[in-house]
Amino acid sequence: MPVPAEERDRILRLVEAGQVSAAEAARLLDALASPAETAPPLRARARQRLVHIRVTDLLLNRPRTSVTIPVELIEVGLRLATRLAPQISGSALEQLLHAIAQASTGRLLDFQDLEENERVEIFLEER
């Protein structure tokens, strides 16, 4: 939508009077333009990337914990997950974070802790 004529004329009078430079006037006119004119075109809504962490009890063969976390919160989530599975720490944690950043979808990690009798699986999903 164009800038209303009265606003445009007022800005041009400020330029004519020497109170505003041409560059400042251009910025004012841009600011008064409708957001639809200045905003980039809308893109299709991006699919949300999620990390799913599942811990299974090997003796009972049933889930102990199942958590789904948006990728944006994954670093905090994985640091919490290291309390459930201390094996995911240090360089292993850094490698997992790198895999999340690089992968599209699928299984990122699958390991069994025989001392704790549990299996930890981490998947990257899109919804």
Helix and strand sequence: HHHEEHHEE
Low-confidence stretches: none
Q: Let me know the number of strands.
A: 4
Structural shape: rod-shaped
Radius of gyration: 27 Å
Distance between the termini: 36 Å
For the sheet with most strands, the description reads: 4 strands, antiparallel
Q: Percent range for helical residues? A: 25-40%
Computed structural class: alpha+beta
Strand order of the largest sheet: 2-1-4-3
Number of domains: 2
Protein name: YvlB/LiaX N-terminal domain-containing protein
InterPro entries: YvlB/LiaX_N
Structure description:
The protein is an alpha+beta fold and 127 residues long. The chain folds into two domains: 5-38, no CATH class; 49-126, no CATH class. Helices cover 39% and strands 28% of the residues. It has five helices and four strands; from the N terminus they run αααββααββ. The chain has helices at 5-16, 22-32, 35-38, 74-84, 91-102; strands at 49-57, 62-70, 106-113, 118-126. It has a four-stranded antiparallel beta sheet, covered by helices on one side. Strand 1 (49-57) and strand 2 form a beta hairpin. Helix 1 (5-16) runs antiparallel to helix 2. The longest helix is centred in the first third of the chain and has 12 residues, at 5-16. The protein is rod-shaped and about 85 Å long. The model has no long low-confidence stretch (mean pLDDT 78). InterPro entries: YvlB/LiaX_N (IPR053959). Residues 6-34 form the YvlB/LiaX N-terminal domain. It comes from Thermogemmatispora tikiterensis. Pfam families: SHOCT-like_DUF2089-C. This is YvlB/LiaX N-terminal domain-containing protein.
